[in-house]
Amino acid sequence: MFGIPPQALFGQLLIGLINGSFYALLSLGLAVIFGLLNIINFAHGAQYMMGAFAAYFLLQYAGLGYGWALLIAPVIIGLLGMALERVTLKRLYHLDHLYGLLLTFGVALIIQGVFRYEFGSSGLPYPIPRALEGGKNLGFMFLPNYRAWVIVLSLVVCFGTWLVIERTRLGAYLRAATENPTLVRAFGINVPRMITLTYGFGVGLAALAGVLAAPIYQVNPLMGGDLIIVVFAVVVIGGMGSILGSIITGFTLGLVEGLTKVFYPEASNTVIFVIMAIVLLVRPTGLFGRAS
Amino acid sequence: MMAAVGEYVEAPAVPAAVTQRHQAVGFAVMVAFFSVMPFFVYPIFLMKALCFALFACAFNLLIGYVGLLSFGHAVFLGSAGYVSAHTAKVWGWPPELAILGGAVVAGALGVAIGFLSIRSKGIYFANITLALAQMVYFFCVQAKFTGGEDGIQAVPRGMMFGLFDLRNSLTLYFVVLAIFAGGFLLTYRAIHSPFGQVLKAIRENEPRAVSLGYRPEHYKLIAFVLSATLSGLAGGTKAIVFQLASLADVHWTMSGEVVLMTLLGGLGTVFGPVVGALTLVMLEHYLVQLGAWVTIIQGAIFVVCVLTFRRGIVGELARALKKPL
C-alpha cells in the first residue's frame, strides 16, 4: 500500500495502538479527576512512573510477580494519591484552580527528583510475565502476546470505567457532584470523601498504566515527564473532563501517531500538537467537550 | 466568587501618586543595587539573574495583571535565543540587531500561540500553552539551524552599536542592565497605563468589561504578544551573554522555572519577579553541585509557596510595610 511494506505499516499501527492504550488510560484518569476536582493533575506522569516502580519493587523485594503488581501497585499509589489530596490539595479548593495545577507541578518535580537521585536516568529492566511471552503470527504481521494483552486490558478498564460512571448509582452521584457539589451534599452524600476517592482512582489508573508499561519501556524515573504533556494535548483534543472523549481520542491519536511514523516520520512527535491546534481553531471546547 | 490568581497582592487603597512615588524609590534602589553589585559579585552570575528577572517580569505581566497562567513561556525565551545566536554567529549581525531579531521572532510566535490560546481561560489556557510550547520544542529538536542537542555554541558577542565592546564583561554587564531596566520600565508603563487598567478590569470581571464596550480578546492578545516579545528580549540577551543557545531554554522545565520565580517573588507585584529571579538563580548557583536535588528543592518551594506563601516575598513585604511594591 503506497509503496509501504505491510509488515512496517502494521508494525507501526500496533505501536500506535499500544501508545494509544497508555494515552487513553492516562487521559481517562486526568478526565475523571478534572471532572470532579477541576484541577489538572500535573503529577499524573510522576504517578504513572511510580506505578512502574511499585511493580519493580514488588518483584525485587517481595517476590510478587506481574499479576500481583497489576492489583497491588495501583492500590498503593492510589492510597498515596489520596493522602496527597487530604493533606494538600484539599486546602486549595476555595482558591483559583490554577493553584492546584501549580501544587501538583511541584509534587511532580519532587517525585521525579527523588527517583532520579536514587536510580539515575537509565532504565531498570522488568521482565515480561512468562504467561504472556511469545506471540502469534497473524499472517500479515507478528503480534507479541504481551502487547495484545496491554491493548485488551486497557480497553476493558477504560470502557469499564465509562460504564460505571454512566450506568451505575455511584456514577450518578459522581456526575451529580460534578454538576453541583453543594446540592449533592445537601442530600446527605459525603462529597469530600467522594473527591478523595475519585482522586485516588484517577491516580490508580495512572499507576496501572505504569505497571502495564514496565515490561515494554523499562522502569525509568523520566518515563512520565514528556509523556504527560502529550496526554495533556490528548485531553484538550478530546474535551476536558469528557470521559468517553478521552478514551476515544486516546486510542485514535495513538493510531494517528503510528501512521505518521510510517508516512512522514519527521512529524511523528508533533502531529498530536498540530491536531490540537487545528481542533482549537475549529472547536475550542474540544471534540467531545461541552460548551463552557 | 473564586479568589483569582494575583488577587492576594492587590495594592491597598493608596492614592496613585503615592504608589508611584514608592515604586520610583523602589526602582532607584534596584538600579543602584545592580549598578554596585558587579564590583563585588561575578558579573556573569548577575547577568544571568538580570535576564531571568526580565523574563519573569514579562511573565508576570500575564499572570499578575491579566490572570492568565502561561505554561509555555520558555518557547519565547528559547526561540529568541536561537534566533539571536544564529543571526550573530552565522549571519554576522551586530548584537543589538541580533537581540532585536530574537525579540521580534518571539513576538511573532506570541501572535500565533496567543491567537490559538487566548480564547480559553484558567487551566485550559495553561494546558494549551504548554502543549503548543512542546510542539515548538520538538521543532527545535529536529530543525537544522538549532544544532539539536549541541545547540548553537561560541556565539560572538561583538560590538554593540559599533561602540561598546561586549567582550569586556563589565561593559556587557551594563548593557544587560540597561536592557533589563528598559524592559522593566516598559512593563511598568504598560501596567499603569489606561491599557493596563482595562486588563485589570477584564481580570476582575470579564462580562462587565464586555458590557462597557471593551473587547477582551484584543487586550489579552496585545498583553500576550508584549509578554512574549519581552521574554524574547530576555532570551536574545541571554544567548549573547552566555554565547550559547540550547534546548534547555525551550523545554517545559524552563516554563516551570519562570512560574516559580514569579510565584516566589510575588504574583502581580512590581518588584516580585526580580526578587524571585534573583533568589532562584542564587539558589541554583549554590546547589548546582547537588545535582538532582535542585529539582527536588524547586518542587518543595513550589509546594510551600502554593500552600502557605501565596503572596510571595515581595507581596508579604508589601503587606508588612503597608506599601504597594
**What is the averaged pLDDT score of chain B?**
88
Shape of chain B: globular
Greatest chain-chain contact: A-B, 46 and 45 residues
User: How many beta-strand runs of chain A?
Assistant: 2
Residue runs with pLDDT of under 50 for 5 or more positions of chain A:
none
Proportion of residues in helical segments of chain B: 55-70%
Give the domain tally of chain A: 1
The global form of chain A is: globular
Q: Spans of chain B of 5+ residues with little confidence (pLDDT < 50)?
A: 6-11
Radius of gyration of chain B: 19 Å
Query: What string gives the helices and strands of chain B in order?
Result: HHHHHEEHHHHHHHH
Topology order of chain A in helix (H) and strand (E) letters: HHHHEEHHHHHHH
How would you state the average pLDDT of chain A, rounded?
89
- Major sheet strand order of chain B: 1-2
Number of strands of chain B: 2
Report the span from N to C terminus of chain A.
Answer: 43 Å
**Number of separate helices of chain B:** 13
Question: What gyration radius of chain A follows from the Cα positions, in whole Å?
Answer: 19 Å
Question: How are the SSEs ordered, and which strands pair?
Answer:
The complex is a heterodimer of chains A (292) and B (325).
Chain A: H1 6-37, H2 44-61, H3 66-87, H4 98-119, E1 135-137, E2 142-144, H5 145-167, H6 169-179, H7 181-186, H8 191-217, H9 227-238, H10 243-263, H11 271-282
Antiparallel strand pairs in A: 1-2
Chain B: H1 16-36, H2 43-65, H3 74-89, H4 95-117, H5 122-142, E1 159-160, E2 164-165, H6 169-191, H7 194-204, H8 206-211, H9 216-242, H10 252-265, H11 272-287, H12 293-308, H13 312-321
Antiparallel strand pairs in B: 1-2
Description:
The complex is a heterodimer of chains A (292) and B (325). Chain A is mainly alpha-helical. Chain A has one domain. Chain B has a domain of 207 residues. In chain B, strands 1-2 form a two-stranded antiparallel ribbon. In chain B, strand 1 and strand 2 form a beta hairpin. In chain B, helix 2 crosses helix 11 and helix 10 packs parallel to helix 13. The longest helix of chain B is centred in the last third of the chain and has 27 residues. Chain B is globular, with a radius of gyration of 19 Å. About 2% of the residues of chain B have low confidence. Classes of the chains: A mainly alpha (292), B mainly alpha (325). The interface between A and B is large, with 46 and 45 residues.
